Amino acid sequence: MSETSEQPERISDAEHAVMEALWRRSPLTAQEVCDEVCGPRGWSLATVKTLLSRLVVKQALATEPDGKRFLYSPRIARSDYVGTESRRLVDRLFGGRAAPLFAHLARAEALTQDDIAEIEALLKELKS
Amino acid sequence: MSETSEQPERISDAEHAVMEALWRRSPLTAQEVCDEVCGPRGWSLATVKTLLSRLVVKQALATEPDGKRFLYSPRIARSDYVGTESRRLVDRLFGGRAAPLFAHLARAEALTQDDIAEIEALLKELKS
DNA sequence: CGTAGTCGATTACGTATGTAGACGATGGAG
DNA sequence: CTCCATCGTCTACATACGTAATCGACTACG
Fold first, then answer.
1. What pLDDT digit, counting tens, does each position of A54-84 carry?
2. Percent of chain B having pLDDT more than 90?
3. Which residue of A11, A35, A60, B77 has the smallest Cβ count within 10 Å?
């Protein structure tokens, strides 16, 4: 019984931006991650390094030495992250049921015809 | 031009629990809010008072004096809150498109037949 | 072999958040 | 009129987060 019941630590907003870069492409060095995110967010390399360290502590990233520096890669799948975050929202705001969320989005988001078609196809698949 | 371009301040997790109580029923006194949420969350009255104050500062709650104490009521509609939070999630995780979120939920959440029927009805309505 | 650039690690610091105790005003009971 | 229960406010404090500078180690260039 390894008594390390690691329920995954929460990933903050800024940290999430770093994760996205690494989900797009990995492994990357700190510098490369910065190339991806520093521009858009107006961050310095130092900031990215801090975020990377924190993500490693949170076990969200794995490191692999590459000569003098590290290569970082995600340790959790994007789909898992998306799953828990979506679930959190649905639980907090829609009593745990996905349908009301969808209803809300449908009304508020002005789905395109393509969106609607996509969803209908999905429903058909689910019903079979 | 009133230069108070108040983009609504973010409501934290704990604060959100308080908002939910007041969305269910309002106005309420601090004590009454505590009756609603202190049990489930294991909070003390003091904690609720702090959260209420912070929410007032954030303009999420309005106060109305009632003798010696205050009555609190929401100043923002739940649907607005739900809207911005949902939008945040969709933007962060699904590139701003609702359909992928739905696809994810559909696969991961095991929608009931009722859910599916509900959504189909909605789609029909949207297409007309 | 020394020096400049680069790397991760350490330290910093302000604000937000979770949680709550202490305090001063005040209104109602007696 | 006095005293106590309550109220909101102020203060407190640990942790998380956003953002970054600094520092010691190392490497590649000259």
1. 999 999 999 999 988 999 999 999 999 998 9
2. 62
3. B77
Q: Is residue A49 assigned to a domain?
A: yes
> What residues of chain B lie within 8 A of the CB of A102, using their CB?
102, 105, 119, 122
One domain, residues A63 and A112:
no
- The rounded distance, in Å, linking the Cα atoms of A29 and A16 is 17
Check CB contact under 8 Å for B126 and A119. Answer: no
Q: Which of A89, A108, A113 sits opposite B89 (nearest CB)?
A: A89
Same domain, A88 and A118: yes
Which of B74, B96, B111 terminates a domain? The answer is B74
Give the separation between CA B26 and CA B32, rounded to whole angstroms.
10
Same domain for B102 and B55?
no
Give the integer Cα–Cα distance in Å for A110 and A77.
Answer: 30
Q: Are A17 and A66 in the same domain?
A: yes
pLDDT tens digits, A106-123: 777 667 778 788 888 888
Minimal C-alpha gap between B14 and chain A (Å)? 11
Minimal CA separation from A89 to chain B, in Å: 7
Tens digit of each residue's pLDDT (9 = 90 or more) over B65-115: 998 899 999 999 999 999 999 989 999 999 888 888 888 887 776 677 787
- A101 with A111: CB under 8 angstroms? no
The residue range of the domain holding B97 is 78-127
**Interface confidence (ipTM) of the complex:** 0.85
Amino acid at B108: A
